[in-house]
Specification:
Elements: H1 13-24, H2 28-38, H3 43-60
Length: about 70
Amino acid sequence: MNTRTGEYHRFNEVGNLMWIELQKSHDKNVVLDRLVDQIDASRETLSSALDRFIAQLLSLGFIEEQKE
């Protein structure tokens, strides 16, 4: 649930795995390595999907971009 808007969001199975892995590590390459081990898809396909998922999470305010 987005506490700012009160809207509920549900992830599909792949989105759920991405969310779990993003909580474990903020390093995209580490997350991608873990996803490749769990999902029957190419690294390139998963990388694109992960980029889109992260962009959605940012736009919904579920995560914030880290400033280095």
